[in-house]
Specification:
The protein has 124 residues and is of the alpha+beta class. It contains one helix and nine strands. The chain is globular.
Length: 124
């Protein structure tokens, strides 16, 4: 004997209603998570400087996307964390939680900070 697996109109309506209600309540929660992810800062490294997409960020989680446009390897250190050494043409991400105030950043490759690869980010 073969059974039909179709839903009755009442059951189908119930399933659609549950999905719709779930979407209404889940939408704001998902948006809040996206917003709570924090700031994103693009960093371009080259000899011998960093260029940040912004000089000020809100306190909390900040994701730095560091691209090495130079010809030498560089890294990026801020908030007690540092990227791995980034080869020319490559990119690395660094997620740091920053508090209000200011945070110094620099390249830890010997001589690079002294040559200009350093700065300060304002955290509001």
């Amino acid at each position: 004997m073969v059974r039909s697996s179709s839903l009755s109109p009442v059951r189908l309506f119930s399933v659609v209603a549950v999905v719709a209600v779930s979407a209404v309540f889940a939408g704001p929660a998902l948006a809040a998570r996206t917003h709570a992810a924090g700031a994103a800062v693009k960093v371009t490294a080259s000899e011998f400087k960093f260029v940040l997409s912004t000089k000020t960020v809100a306190a909390g989680s900040v994701t730095f996307t560091v691209t090495n446009k130079g010809k030498l390897p560089h890294d990026f250190k801020i908030g007690g964390k540092v990227t791995p050494l980034i080869a020319p043409g490559k990119t690395a991400k660094l997620v740091v939680t920053l508090k209000k105030g200011s945070d110094a950043y620099l390249c830890t490759v010997p001589g690079h900070a002294a040559a200009g690869m350093k700065g300060t980010l304002k955290v509001t």
